[in-house]
Amino acid sequence: xxxxxxRTLLRGSLYGAAVSVGLPFLDCFLDNNGTALAxxxxxxxxxxxxxxxxxxxxxxxxxxxxxGAGYEMRGDFAPLQKFQxxxxxxxxxxxxxxxxxLLVHFxxxxxxxxxxAPRGFDTTPPTVDTLIADVIGKKTRFxxxxxxxxxxxxxxxxxxxxxxxxxxxxxxxxxxxRIFGSGFIDPNAANFLPDPKALLRQSALSxxxxxxxxxxxxxxxxxxxxxxxxxxxxxxxEQGVEAELQKPAPLESCTVPSGDVNAKSANSEIEAxxxxxxxxxxxxxxxxxxxxxxxxxxVFGDSNSSLxxxxxxxxxxxxxxxxxxDPKTGYQSNVGWFVGRCMGGLATFLETLDGVREGDSTLLxxxxxxxxxxxxxxxxxxxxxxxxxxxxxxxxxxxxxxxVAADGDPSSRLGLTLQQAYGLPISVWGTDxxxxxxxxxxxxA
Length: 445
Description:
The structure is a single chain. The protein contains 11 helices and 10 strands. The chain is an alpha/beta fold. The chain starts with a helix and ends in a 24-residue tail after the last helix.
């Protein structure tokens, strides 16, 4: 019991410093092309992200007619045609329930992002973005950044385990303050002075490190195992503080945006969501280009899709259940309108990432983006033939410009593929019938 104050000190040090961990990039310069670190020749670090919209699509109005290269973005996905060569469309995958109840507007997205058809809302495995962030985000100021364009933090699709959400930033202004506030260090600044607070934190953590070693000696095997995750987090914090005391490497594409973040009031009106999404897109691009994070997660519309036209109470979600199909097209027209606005937002995000030049390539080329939803046909809450896409080449680890048609395989195949592409030592992923050892080799470079 006499050791408990030291554990309290460890916990206090962790929480007290976490909000201001500095930049971790090696102190070296980019090569002449701006694509590699000059001191090592290593490529610029890869980035990962996810982009989510709710309530799926009109079945039959999104799937490309051609498999392989040279496909066309059609129907609901037509706004994305400009980026067809930098994207992949994955069709024909299912989320398999086994004996579980369908949790509407939840099971489908968890099947894609966590490889599982959950038994309850609080029994989900970690989502793929957190698994990848644990590998590529250890030394960045923010392991990941989440945003929710509807203004509700719990609309996030990023989860650690069970109901442990990674809540999203609700407003662009809050995100701007978080990224470019007092803890930001411009990697291109001529002068560099370590933050005096970081020096104090380093001293405190050094003292804690010695205390920790003594404390661990007094514990049994079970207690050491139970505390290992906590101490691992502390070691990551120590690495971040060490990096904060070093001058970050200049990043050619890094620019600091102005503080003029003219956001709309947080609500589900489509114009407000679209405006806030555009602002979020710019801020996330700056954060990635400046090395503040390597993992971002964007929610355009929530899984129940509360998106609505200005002045109307009828939501996208309600339209999916109550709107009859157009007798000429066979599709729900208003549903198609909302999906088109969502895809227009995605096109804006891709354009923003692709507009950041990095030597001969762009930030989008360094990115691997998982694009997914919660259902294929929201009218019946179907989770078969889920519409899924990827964007970006993940620094050359992924191929793009392909339509891959699966044949009823579990949607977890894509999550396994992405984890392996980002270097995770994993050969099997998912639970029950969602468990798979089969990657989507077509898109692996």
